[in-house]
Amino acid sequence: MKQRVLLTDTIHINRKSFPSLFRVLQNDNRFEIVKANIGKEFISAYGNYHKFPEIVNIRASQDNLTEQQVLNLSENRIHILSICEAELLTLLVTMHNFDGQILTDNMEKRFTFYYNNFRDELLFNIAAGTYWIRYWSSKLNSLPALHCSIVFSGSSIYQKAFIALIKRTQCRNFVIEHSFTGNEFYFEEKYESIANNSDIKYNTIYMKTLNDIKSNEKSRQQLHIEGINRLFLMSNKNVQQPEVSTTFRIEKRKTILILCQVVNDYSLLGQRIYSIDVYKRILKQLANHKCNVILKLHPWEHKRANLGYAFTKDRMETYINSHLNNSVANILLMENFNIRQLFDKSDFAIGLNSQALIEAAYCGMKPLQFGSAFYGNRGFTYDFAITEIEQAIADIVENRIDGNLSLDEWEAFMDFLGIYTVIQLCGTMKADDGGILSRLAEYGHGELVESRECRQPQVSNQRRWMRSLLQANKQEGK
After folding, report:
1. Which of 359, 195, 381 is nearest to 272 (CA)?
2. What pLDDT is recorded for position 452?
3. Residue 460 pLDDT
4. How many CA atoms, within 13 angstroms, populate the side-chain half-sphere of residue 441?
């Protein structure tokens, strides 16, 4: 019997973006592709649901609910706010009266803030959550048994609603998304979003792989070489690097590079980080010191839904001009500029959980990360909590830390790079098809055995065992 694989949308999950996945699914007669054909505008709303009649009708039916009723609203035993908050925030963080400090509070306090300040947007997203739970419930009931499902990203409402339902079934779920290398992508069996959440972040998972590769030094060196090659051949699908500038000049003094992310990036909002406030705190600490500060802005904000312009640049220029007048000459805001050239000109690289910090390490820098990055605590980064910004900046200006990797730290980076790009990620080349196939392969099942103690049949179910192990790894490896 063929193994049915459900593609939860065909806009993001397509042959052009993931060629190796489609080669495996379409060329191997063991698989049958099942598609959920959803309109592009519907799955790319990013919190703006005013124009969809299906959502408007549900919104109208919920309009008379009290604040407490909205907070507790559920559908099919799924708490709706929990699946719609991240997407709601992609809209709210772009609004002029949004207070980023609210993200540090608990869910009830955050909800009260949303309800009092953005009630209409909140209710439309609650309605969208209701709609998508109903949609997927009906869809899954109408489909034959599925072997596995594939979800892109896992952060938007339609994706979270699907995952909340599919994890109640025996269907295996994979979350897929591009990596910054362009030629590799995440393809992990999981029941949550992938943004800054690859399983490689768990110590037990990472260290098991690391110990395995260290047992064979020849294989380890080969892995290092392949990892370097993959980064060397990187081709980011969203950002094309400009040519190196021959006119770029800065004063010869300590230079700190801040790598900014798109303000409503799910990798930030999933951890409830309001990046604008973080950058302001960093600039405030650096303002009174004789150093150059470069803010490398993310050009994708011009294309990002709910933005369409350089949001972070606008907020930073306003802050610098109104609060840091004496230091404006020391702060450069750069958007379309070759990032490798900035690494070459900088002494320190700072960021939240941007994957650009991995590129900084590739260029020999030891970056400071504040956003619980999935690549943190692997021996090649300085790892700080957001509450430790002041301490981290003091370490920089008082020369207590070095912005470059030592030989041992470079070796640790090489280990990570190989494990990350070659083992954890999947590639788009034909040679990578086997890795896709092995992940899609069905789990084996053990035979029934009789317990000597209770004389009751025991089932050795590899799938349940692996799920239990992964959960234990996650709890233990944070």
Report:
1. 195
2. 47
3. 38
4. 11
> CA of 80: how far to CAs of 89, 157, 170, in Å?
14, 9, 23
Q: Are strands 348-351 and 255-259 parallel, antiparallel or unpaired?
A: parallel
- Do the beta carbons of residue 78 and residue 164 sit within 8 Å? yes
- Report which residue type is found at 420: Y
Number of other CB atoms surrounding residue 447 within 10 Å: 6
Main-chain phi, psi angles of 34, to 5 degrees? -115, 130
Q: Would you say the C-alpha torsion 152, 477, 367, 293 has a positive or negative sign?
A: positive
With vertex at residue 350, the alpha carbon angle to CA 195 and CA 370, rounded to the nearest 5 degrees, is 50
Residue with structure tokens 């400090």? 101
Cβ 473 vs Cβ 465: under 8 Å: no
- Identify the bridge partners of residue 383 per DSSP, sorted by sequence position: 369
Reported pTM: 0.89
Distance CA 438, CA 431 (A): 13
Report the greatest alpha carbon distance in the chain. 80
Secondary structure string (H, E, C) spanning 50-104: CCCHHHHHHHHHCCCCCHHHHHHCEECCEEHHHHHHHHHHHHHCCCCCCCHHHHH
User: How many other C-beta atoms are found inside a 10 Å radius of the C-beta of residue 285?
Assistant: 17
Ranges of the chain whose pLDDT falls below 50: 451-466, 478
Nearest-CA neighbor of 317 among 331, 338, 302? 331
Quickly count helices (H) and strands (E) in the chain: 19, 16
Please tell me the distance from the alpha carbon of residue 196 to that of residue 104, in angstroms, as a whole number.
Answer: 18
- Give 207-272 as a DSSP string: HHHHHHHHT-HHHHHHHHHHHHHHHHT---SS-PPPPPPSS----SS-EEEEE---TT-HHHHTTT
- pLDDT tens for each residue of 35-67: 998 999 999 999 999 999 999 999 999 999 999
What length does the chain have?
478
pLDDT of residue 461: 44
Pairing type for strands 457-461 and 292-296 reads unpaired
pLDDT score at 428: 93
Burial class (CB in 10 A: 0-12, 13-18, 19+), 161: buried
| Strand ranges (E), 95-157 | 148-152
Of 36, 30, 114, 104, nearest to 80 (Cα)?
Answer: 114
Q: What is the CA radius of gyration of the chain?
A: 24
Query: What pLDDT is attached to residue 324?
Result: 85
Residue 163, C-beta contacts closer than 8 angstroms, at least 6 positions apart: 151, 154, 173, 175, 191, 192
Q: What is the DSSP string of 332-375?
A: EEESSS-HHHHHHH-SEEEESS-THHHHHHHTTB--EE-S--TT
Sign of the dihedral defined by the CA atoms of residues 109, 113, 119, 121, in that order: negative
